[in-house]
Design a protein that fits this description.
The complex is a heterodimer. Chain A has a single domain, classed as Lipoprotein localisation LolA/LolB/LppX (outer membrane lipoprotein receptor (LolB), chain A). By secondary structure, chain A is of the alpha+beta class. Chain B is elongated. Chain B folds into 2 domains: 197 residues, no CATH class; 174 residues, no CATH class. Classes of the chains: A alpha+beta, B alpha+beta. Chains A and B meet through loops of A and strand 3, strand 6 and strand 7 of B.
Chain lengths: 257, 390
Amino acid sequence: MMAVKNKITFAAGIFPSLFFYFVSLGATEEISAQKLLELVDENLWAETKFVSGRLIIDNGRKTRTLTQDSWMEGFTRSYSYYKSPAREKGTKMLKIGDKLWMYTPRTDRKILIAGHLLRQSMLGSDLSYEDMMEDHKLSHSYRATFSAQGFEDFAGVRCAILNLLARDKKTTYQTRQVWINQGENIVLKEERFAKSGKLLKRVLFEDYEKIGDRLFPRTMIFRDMLKENTRTVYKFDNIEFDIDIPARYFSQSILKR
Amino acid sequence: MNWNIASKNFRRQGLRAFLNVLITALAIIAIIFMLSLLNGFQAQATRNLVSTDVGGGHYRAPGFDILTPTKWEDITAPVPEVLKNLSARNKAEVLVQQGQLFPGRRLFPVQLRGIAMQQSLLHLPLAGLKSFSGKSAPEIIPAVVGVKMANKARLKKGDTVVLKWRDKGGAVDARDILIVDVGDFVNPRIDAGVVWLRLDHLRSMTGRDGEVSWVAVREYLGAVPGFEFHGIEVLMADLLALLNQDRINSKILWGVLMVLVCTSVFNTQVLNIFKRQKEIGTLMALGMDARRVVKIFMLEGAIAALWALALAAILGVPFFVWFQGVGIDVTHLSEASFPVRETIYPDYQPREILVSVVIVLVLVIVSAWALVKKIARMDPALALRGKAIT
């Protein structure tokens, strides 16, 4: 009888402990995954940015290189100017809020890229206009948890794999998966999924370099996983953070010859 | 008396008169053929549009305009109670969304059209979708495409291909679709670039439960709160404008034909009067007044017109009957998105034919009279010597 009572007392003690252990373990995991994502954002995020780079578009048949300068301010405003090749030279894109205008010198017109046009391929690349417009803190838009795999070796580095679930039903990609180098708080790989779970886009972040107090990837490789043999490499030749950007860069009046 | 003289004179003209009659007859045949073919084209295009897309008109979500593709995706609304209560034979609920298809892993922008399976108002080759059921779309979504779309995207029955779309909130989704059938759509406008789905599937895919872009109805039901009615004329405005332009063009051709006919008649009359001056002079010297001579010459013109009408009937009727049987193949027009892609048949409108024939006859008689009125001013003495007209 005594033995039975002891067993019950033991069980009564051990089960709540185990329950709280698992609950707290889960909570710790979630908090640390979210924290990790915040650290990644902190490393990459800047109020203003200037980027001069090359967009190397390989559509499986031929490769084109576009050079561009971009100025970005916060989440909402960005302006890009395409310098080459001759066909695209003078093309300008202006994003203000959720609107995107494009100006092409050949037509000498600005057009609002809206609706389904936002989902079309941008200048034949693996990025849609929407992807190009996307500039937000992942930790704000997504709730992060460690994936079931936990960790994986990627590019010779032990990476934590995070599952990101959109907080808002309006977010374009409802789920993502990111491979994070925990030691450096940098993303090495990202996969973007449809609601159904189908893999849509894969982004590789390479050639990290110390710029100021940040580690920033010099190369981003985009692949539209629904297309065959295509990839778009975005190479950043010059990056500057927290710079002053003239107000006229974010005005529609800049969209002219 | 006048008739007998005119008739004899007409017969004596021989080949010249026959050619005159033949040209006028061919012009009448050409005009009737041209107008009837246009009528047939319009009737067939209207029939195809009405039976496959327009019905008796659309009740559309306010602001929906298929010609502004950057905007219409989000212009959907729940079906109003009045339209919901209509029977399946009197309405067709349609939801239209944008999508991207990846046949052979190439990007192909498409229009996704979801249509209620119970409807019988529109005649569409979507039987392949009917066997699938359930409110939500299955893992692999069944779809039907048209022949034109299948050729362009290189798809065939049984193919599985990735489809990407947006839900109501804006989140991107993608799944495989199975081409359960390649349908033969008579209206290329709802074939090229269109993927047909079950309405319940498209609604569940996009999170637009109970919503439509429009409801096609058999007939106008009066104002429906929250929806705008677009009648057949509005929905076919582009096609009607095109056909009107064609009618204007046909009138130009008609005018050219008439000028040719009138020139022929006029030319004959010039020759008649010039060569028959002595005859005119003799008639006038024997006491026939100038007005009667004019009447006789006009009667000759009228006889030519009547013979032309008879010849047009002899040559035209068998031709029209034969053509009504074989029609004209216009499959090439479907490439230009005309809603006609089968053989078209002329549509003969008696009133139109009568008006055209009367106009031709009047023109022929008037052109005959225009010259012979000179006879009234002729000096009989000069006419007898053949010097009244030089």
